[in-house]
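ingest -> validate -> predict -> emit
validate: passed (alphabet ok, no gaps, 80 aa)
predict: started
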Amino acid sequence: MVDAFVFINTDIGAEDEILDVLSKMPEVKEAMIVYGPYDLVVRISTDTTENLRKIVSDKIRKIPKIRSTTTLIIAKSIIK
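emit:
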């Protein structure tokens, strides 16, 4: 499995609308509106890095009112 965090910047006031769209994607495991340099943080899980690329490039980045994304692939994690 390949897991990643996607940090998203949106148009002003579009956070709830985009959160709703993201919540309907099966690969999105968590989606949060946050304060700080980004507007949303999304955790994605998929089977390959190629599918991750397709999800970010072909699905997420094409959502209207998304201005930019930054993707961090998770190398190792501990869940408590």
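Residues 9 and 39 are 5 Å apart (CA to CA).
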